[in-house]
Amino acid sequence: MKYQKKQDAIILLADGTIFYGKAVGNKQGTAFGEVCFNTGMTGYQEIFTDPSYYGQLMVATNAHIGNYGTNVDEVESDSIKIAGLIVKNFSYDYSREAADSSLEDFLDKNNLLAISDVDTRALVSYIRDHGAMNAVISTEVDNVEGLKKQLAEVPSMEGLELASQVSTKEPYYFGDENAAYKVAALDIGIKKNILRNIAERDVYIKVFPYNSKFEDLEAFNPDGYFLSNGPGDPEPLVEAQAVAKEIIKRDLPLFGICLGHQVIAIANGVSTYKMYNGHRGINHPVKNLKTGKGEITSQNHGFAVNREEAEANTDLEVTHVHLNDDTVAGLAMKSKNVFSVQYHPEASPGPHDSSYLFDQFIENIKK
Ligand SMILES: NC(=O)CC[C@H](N)C(=O)O
User: Which residues does the annotated region (CPSase) include (predicted)?
Assistant: First the structure.
């Protein structure tokens, strides 16, 4: 086609579908992952550094990415965790008082491949119709057959254990050691803003690697336990499930977010499943069934807890539901001091409607 500028990057989906774009900054490379989309209008830096996105190629549905630059403090972990980025318009220029770098430099520093000028509306509606799948983004536009072969080797997200790839190698502390309470947090991909939210409620936190034993956490003598968010499928996380079971058995205060919520469900004998399309955005409506109130929430998950099984479990209560598709958004144990949510009360990015859940965790600790 005469009018079409020569495209220098492609997005090849596992089913063979191809979309075209341009490499941001004329970078060369190839990146594999599960393709997913986030509908947030803001918060790209927090999203790119959220460990829950490890192994995923992210499509931003907002038409402009990069226009407010980046800031060293607006990270949810020490590095970019998405596998690659797909956008419509990439802003090489930026404007914001608080910004200290361009998004282009930030991506370069993290060596991340990004593709711009993609028809992201067409791509997202295609993924919505055909479900989550693996994909590759590449500047090797003339090597489609080679890329197809390599893509076929990429494991499916279903059944994939990824917490070990992002968890801390050594335990560490967060907050003020003279705080009123102590919490042991199992890091299966924890976001920094969760630590900030817990610590600012007068809590000293010790963060443990994903494969720690209950006894390791217990040795900190905590008042409460926390299971974090994180990447991958919750089913293979047997070590984390074992920790959850021990905490539950002893009736100790426990709070779980996202992957942690899924692990708590599995520890209760309730299974999880891969969603056709996940929930990723900052305006997902949730209903709190205990208060009848709605919350606008930040979400990022591709798996969910089986609602029928959760409702059939006499010791579990479905406390929150997602209003778009009636999936489980929150759980509590009736006989234990244990609760969890599928969404992100720590926001970052997103609304703060659900920060009361951190207060509830502290109340449970006080009990
Ligand atoms: N944010 C999260 O913790 C995500 C949990 C899990 N990896 C999922 O995709 O469902």
Answer: 1-181
Q: Tell me if domain 9-152 and domain 163-366 are identical in fold.
A: no
Q: Which residues line ligand 1 (CB under 6 A)?
A: 52, 229-232, 258-259, 278, 300-303
> Which listed CATH number (1.10.2020.10, 3.40.50.880, 1.10.3720.10, 3.40.50.2000) goes with 163-366?
3.40.50.880
Q: Where are the domains of the chain?
A: 9-152, 163-366
29 known ligand binder: no
Tell me the whole-structure pTM to 2 decimals.
Answer: 0.97
Q: Which atom of ligand 1 is nearest to the CA of 303?
A: 10
Task: Give catalytic residues, as residue numbers.
Answer: 258, 344, 346
Domain covering 9-152 in this structure, CATH number = 3.50.30.20
pLDDT tens-digit profile of 205-252? 999 999 999 999 999 999 999 999 999 999 999 999 999 999 999 999
Q: Among 58, 258, 275, 298, which is best to mutate for testing ligand 1, by the most ligand atoms less than 8 A from CB?
A: 258
Give the burial class of 89: count Cβ atoms within 10 A of its Cβ; 0-12 exposed, 13-18 middle, 19 or more buried. Answer: middle
3-state secondary structure 141-199: CCCHHHHHHHHHCCCCCCCCECHHHHCCCCCEEECCCCCCEEEEEECCCCCHHHHHHHH
